[in-house]
Amino acid sequence: MKFTDTPLLKNIINHTPLPVCIINADLCKIELYNDKFLQLYSQESKNYSEKQLLDFLNSKFIADTALVSKVIAANNSFYGDKFSLDVNHDNKPATVITPLYAPIADDQNKVVKLAIWMTQNSTKKRETDNKKHIISERNHLSKLLEEIPASIALLSGKDFVFELVNTAYQNLVPGRTLIGKPFLEALPELMGSELEKSLKKVYSEGVSLSFSDDLVPLSNTNINQQKQRYFTYRLIPRINDDGLTDGIFIFTSEVTHAVDNKVNLERTSNNLNQIINMLPASVVIIRYDNLIVEMINDANLSYWKKMRDEVVGKPFLEILPDLADQPFAGQLRRVMETGEIIDVKESPVLFTEPDGTIRETFVDYTYQPLTGLDGKRDGVLVMSFEITDRVLAQRQLKEYADQLSKANDQLSILINQLSKSESRFKYVFQKAPVAIGLLRGKDLIIESANSKILEVWGKTDQVIGLTLAEALPEIKDQPFLGFLDNVYKTGTPFYANEIKAELLHDGELREIFFNVVYQPIADADGNIADILVVAADITEQVNARKLIEKSEAYFKMLADLVPSKISNALPTGEVTFFNKRWLEFAGMNFEDLRDFGYHEMMHPDEIEKFQTGLAEAAANRKPHISEMRFKNTEGKYIWHLNIASPILDEDGNITMWVGSTTDIQGLKEEEQRKNDFISMVSHELKTPLTSINAYLQLLLRKAEKTDDQFLKQAYAQSLKQVRNMTEMINGFLNVSRLESGKLHIDKTEFNICDLLEEIKADYKIQYSSHELIFTSPQSVIVCADRLKLAQVLNNLVGNAVKYSGNGTKIYVSLKKSENRIRVTVKDEGMGIKSENLTKLFDKYYRVQQESTIGGFGIGLYLSAEIIQAHGGKIWAESEFGKGSTFSFELPLK
């Protein structure tokens, strides 16, 4: 029974002999009232509507909000301050009112309304309460109590004599006489009970008390046969005209059946929790479209890594937000919507760990629809088995698991068809491409064994019917019997990869490696009856892997013996090996050198170039060769020749990098000494050549005043040789400057067509033995080093003259595109073989051809460096015997 039900409240207050009103606990506004309360303020209704009457009464009676808060906080009744109400009806004297504020609670014992009983005390003692009036009121109250659908009694006086009892209350103790008897005489089994104490408290303090699902030791008929009975009841004091408690109203209902149902429900729920916790699977029940977790077992909590109070009653995606982008939420809703059963095998499930890492797991799971009390689908039963270890093992063994995969397919077909044909099962069992055996009972008797497992064991079918220990005595001191015994006892499958066994074959022990599964098989009663053994012989794969590991160890030993610094790295760049020479040079152990030492040892000026070159080498699948400086333990940078070579698989993919780093500090120092010597000698030679050039020019002028043609020719040829010698010396000087970083490019804006015109006349006089043809536009402005470009042109045209016969043509052309210019020098000379084209611009390189033409191989090298310093490129094209074409391009901006 709910005392907050409005129809019940209205029925009670309408028949109550005292003025009473019901107010809302939050707003302190009158919601219900009886006629006697209305008569306190108005004799007539004045044809008011119900709303108008409520507004009128709320304006007349203002509840004491402080006292309302006190009643709500204590959930007890309290008297308010007395006040005088001068009604002036029929010349009656003024009335003194003592209000009693009593709480009305809901099923959760929360005070939601208050009943205010108006006790009237006339200023002049009235003597109209005669015996007839009392009897009339009592009869009236009796009729009221009979009409109320609840068990109600009225106790009178301090002995709690039953004054009134309705039929519902009498039915609680059938066969007993209550009216006129004291409470404890009528119900002696309640003596000393909490109910007795509560009655005394209500009577002495004038407070109301409420109790829900309270245990009352009350028997039905026989006092000596007490039983567990539960009641929800409220005790309300009856106040007389003097404001004193002279009785107690009892409103009660028996809830024994409801409490028993609740206990049974809790027991059932507890049993269900114990059952699902015993299951080997992870189990969770999820309800409604917002996927609320209703029930979950310990296995599932362990898998989710959650506590029960973090999960139960909360939405699935709030518990595991990292699963929002995975298919599970959509599948759950589809099962509730369509009623289909979803069964998924080896599904990946990704969890984000607190440290940000991803935990990859795999499960087999089944979604089955659940219906609610209304028969509609509103939930899903989720049963799952985590198989992460098995999937990861399968991944690890992928390279040699094809045979086992075929066996699993065969076994799947075998299991699906087992019920159809036992003979067919035996046939498939025998023909399966992996070793399969069936062991019966605790003694592990060999019931079935296919040819593969007999071959692995080194036995014949004579072992069938023997125990495994009898058939294979050599495994006595090996772990397999213990593994099988544990599977039989626990019912937990056993998986192992690359497990070693020593088995007797033809009188000799052989070392064999397996991937093995021991799968328990239960009988109809759920007890373990058999163990299915499935094994794959992977001895060859294991031995092959061991040979590879041995080869790797041999490689590392050889790498430590060579004088070069050797390293290995994965395609990602992670270094997996440094040989002994590297560790000695760095003065570090492997971990420190790998983690941060390698790049710390590189010269800062060369890191970016090295990384760019290595990326290009990786893209082209070619080695990267570079000269680099590495810092030794003394802090000194030492020059090395560094070669990073990619190792490719059969598909052309890089599987690893092999690095070879050789100390070339001595070669660098020798080269520096050579350059210093060349620079010194070149400077020393230029001084006498300058004097010789001056004397020859004077002699040529004097010879031109004579008719001696021989002298003229001799002096001109001498000057030409001096000029050639000077150009060679300048070339050596430029090489020296370039290698020391002192070759300077001085860019200015000029018309390159003017430069061609200036050198055109000089070339026609200087190279009169050849026909030079120039082609260019009238004006092209470039920003470059004018003297250096002239040097490049002199070199290209000089080479064209040198390597082509007299009387042949040499073409010099300039073309302009949108943002570049191209200068081309083409000859009709001997040409260059294709294998020499890529090396033409290397320092000191000279083409080895049948020619006696001299040179040092520095002209084209200097030209290439000058063009590259301008951000351009230079190249050569040739067909041997048909001439050559040299071209270079420069950017306009």
UniProtKB/TrEMBL annotation:
<dbReference type="InterPro" id="IPR013656">
    <property type="entry name" value="PAS_4"/>
</dbReference>
<dbReference type="InterPro" id="IPR000014">
    <property type="entry name" value="PAS"/>
</dbReference>
<dbReference type="InterPro" id="IPR035965">
    <property type="entry name" value="PAS-like_dom_sf"/>
</dbReference>
<keyword id="KW-0418">Kinase</keyword>
<dbReference type="GO" id="GO:0000156">
    <property type="term" value="F:phosphorelay response regulator activity"/>
</dbReference>
<dbReference type="InterPro" id="IPR050351">
    <property type="entry name" value="BphY/WalK/GraS-like"/>
</dbReference>
<feature type="coiled-coil region">
    <location>
        <begin position="390"/>
        <end position="424"/>
    </location>
</feature>
<dbReference type="Pfam" id="PF02518">
    <property type="entry name" value="HATPase_c"/>
</dbReference>
<keyword id="KW-0067">ATP-binding</keyword>
<dbReference type="InterPro" id="IPR005467">
    <property type="entry name" value="His_kinase_dom"/>
</dbReference>
<feature type="domain" description="Histidine kinase">
    <location>
        <begin position="680"/>
        <end position="893"/>
    </location>
</feature>
<dbReference type="GO" id="GO:0016020">
    <property type="term" value="C:membrane"/>
</dbReference>
<dbReference type="GO" id="GO:0000155">
    <property type="term" value="F:phosphorelay sensor kinase activity"/>
</dbReference>
<dbReference type="GO" id="GO:0007234">
    <property type="term" value="P:osmosensory signaling via phosphorelay pathway"/>
</dbReference>
<dbReference type="Pfam" id="PF00512">
    <property type="entry name" value="HisKA"/>
</dbReference>
<keyword id="KW-0597">Phosphoprotein</keyword>
<dbReference type="InterPro" id="IPR004358">
    <property type="entry name" value="Sig_transdc_His_kin-like_C"/>
</dbReference>
<feature type="domain" description="PAS">
    <location>
        <begin position="551"/>
        <end position="621"/>
    </location>
</feature>
<keyword id="KW-0808">Transferase</keyword>
<dbReference type="Pfam" id="PF08447">
    <property type="entry name" value="PAS_3"/>
</dbReference>
<dbReference type="InterPro" id="IPR003661">
    <property type="entry name" value="HisK_dim/P_dom"/>
</dbReference>
<dbReference type="InterPro" id="IPR013655">
    <property type="entry name" value="PAS_fold_3"/>
</dbReference>
<dbReference type="Pfam" id="PF13188">
    <property type="entry name" value="PAS_8"/>
</dbReference>
<keyword id="KW-0175">Coiled coil</keyword>
<dbReference type="InterPro" id="IPR036097">
    <property type="entry name" value="HisK_dim/P_sf"/>
</dbReference>
<keyword id="KW-1133">Transmembrane helix</keyword>
<dbReference type="InterPro" id="IPR036890">
    <property type="entry name" value="HATPase_C_sf"/>
</dbReference>
<dbReference type="Pfam" id="PF08448">
    <property type="entry name" value="PAS_4"/>
</dbReference>
<keyword id="KW-0472">Membrane</keyword>
<keyword id="KW-0812">Transmembrane</keyword>
<dbReference type="GO" id="GO:0030295">
    <property type="term" value="F:protein kinase activator activity"/>
</dbReference>
<dbReference type="InterPro" id="IPR001610">
    <property type="entry name" value="PAC"/>
</dbReference>
<dbReference type="GO" id="GO:0005524">
    <property type="term" value="F:ATP binding"/>
</dbReference>
<protein>
    <recommendedName>
        <fullName>histidine kinase</fullName>
        <ecNumber>2.7.13.3</ecNumber>
    </recommendedName>
</protein>
<dbReference type="InterPro" id="IPR000700">
    <property type="entry name" value="PAS-assoc_C"/>
</dbReference>
<feature type="domain" description="PAC">
    <location>
        <begin position="624"/>
        <end position="676"/>
    </location>
</feature>
<keyword id="KW-0547">Nucleotide-binding</keyword>
<dbReference type="InterPro" id="IPR003594">
    <property type="entry name" value="HATPase_dom"/>
</dbReference>
<keyword id="KW-0902">Two-component regulatory system</keyword>
<feature type="domain" description="PAC">
    <location>
        <begin position="345"/>
        <end position="399"/>
    </location>
</feature>
<feature type="domain" description="PAC">
    <location>
        <begin position="495"/>
        <end position="550"/>
    </location>
</feature>
